[in-house]
Amino acid sequence: MKINTLKSLSIAAILFGTLTVFSGGRALFGDAEAQAAVGNAVGFVLWFNFLAGFAYVLVGAALWQGRRWAVWGAGALALATALVAAGFGLHIMSGGAFEMRTVGAMTIRLTFWLTVFAVAPRIR
Q1: pLDDT tens digits, one per residue of 36-64
Q2: Does pLDDT of 114 surpass 70?
Q3: What pTM was estimated for this model as a whole?
Q4: What would the 3-class secondary structure string for the chain be?
Q5: Are 39 and 61 in contact (CB under 8 A)?
Q6: From CA 30, how far away is CA 1, in angstroms rounded?
Q7: Dmax (CA) of the chain
Q8: Domain positions in the chain
Q9: Please, what is the Cα angle at 108 between 101 and 84, to 5 degrees?
């Protein structure tokens, strides 16, 4: 049971990272239509999420392999996401334009990595 849970977390992290890189890459480097679909994206959040996607894949692979540092990698991703979310919150409170879906996406990202950081040591 423990191995299956850890493998499931690692697969989820790898898929999450792959989708994050793909969607962020389209928003940053895609054609005009793809970039327009982003709406009021906040630049530093968009760049963070795109770059963090690569780290999601790396940490997911490390979880799959049972590497000890993967748990700390998950914690670092949770902390970095929390810091970016705080900056995003300040951006919103100062009247900056934003997309409500970004609030949801940041909440999902933070919850996911906090969960991995909390659960992975118990099942490793």
Answers
A1: 888 999 999 999 999 999 999 999 999 99
A2: yes
A3: 0.91
A4: CHHHHHHHHHHHHHHHHHHHHHHHHHHHHCCHHHHHCCCCCCHHHHHHHHHHHHHHHHHHHHHHHCCCHHHHHHHHHHHHHHHHHHHHHHHHHCCCCCCHHHHHHHHHHHHHHHHHHHHHHHHC
A5: no
A6: 42
A7: 48
A8: 2-123
A9: 80
